[in-house]
């Protein structure tokens, strides 16, 4: 069952956005980002994030669409405990190409990229949090879900989860989010890609 995007709570609300019960379109403000310390030495917590409460165990899925053209243009799904413990995962434009990107932050950020498929202007991200582990999957069609990342993530009584978008080098990226749901954690085998 899809979530009404009007029921979320903004962190760094963008100047331009519109939402209804089935979709959210946001346009990024200038020089927005989420990052903590690693390599660059700075901390940024200025990206756009629309959060929804999730329990200590859940699976969240969202569809993302946009035209990502400038270095570090990015959009996806964020899971957040606080400003030092969060994950953002989705599409990011880097080195002249689109990649699936994940930043996991627990005090400091890490960053990984991959290309299990190249069609990244309309795709799905699915995140499962359960028992201190986070499973991140991506899909072109919402049916076949290759693994993007498996990582530890701090256990919390509650998380905030929802769409995020950032443009560290510019403003004006328009992103559409749809088919957003939060439900019980999937418990399929790690190699079950359904």
TrEMBL record:
PANTHER family: REGULATION OF ENOLASE PROTEIN 1 (PTHR35332). It comes from Rhizobium leguminosarum. It comes from the Bacteria. This is Regulation of enolase 1. Gene3D superfamilies: 2.60.120.200. Signal peptide: none annotated.
């Amino acid at each position: 069952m899809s979530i009404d995007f009007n029921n979320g709570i903004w962190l760094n609300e963008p100047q331009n956005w519109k939402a209804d019960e089935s979709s959210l379109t946001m346009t990024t403000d200038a020089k927005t980002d989420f990052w903590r310390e690693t390599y660059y030495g700075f901390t940024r917590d200025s990206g756009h994030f629309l959060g929804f409460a999730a329990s200590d165990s859940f699976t969240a899925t969202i569809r993302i669409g946009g035209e990502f053209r400038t270095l570090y243009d990015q959009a996806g799904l964020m899971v957040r405990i606080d400003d030092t413990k969060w994950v953002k995962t989705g599409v990011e434009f880097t080195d002249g190409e689109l990649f699936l990107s994940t930043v996991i932050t627990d005090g400091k950020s890490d960053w990984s990229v991959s290309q299990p498929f190249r069609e990244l202007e309309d795709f799905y991200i699915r995140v499962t949090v359960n028992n201190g582990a986070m499973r991140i999957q991506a899909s072109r069609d919402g049916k076949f879900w290759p693994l993007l990342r498996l990582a530890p993530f701090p256990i919390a009584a509650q998380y905030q989860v929802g769409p995020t978008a950032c443009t560290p080098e510019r403003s004006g990226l328009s992103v559409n989010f749809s088919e957003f749901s939060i439900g019980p954690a999937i418990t399929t085998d790690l190699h079950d890609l359904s």
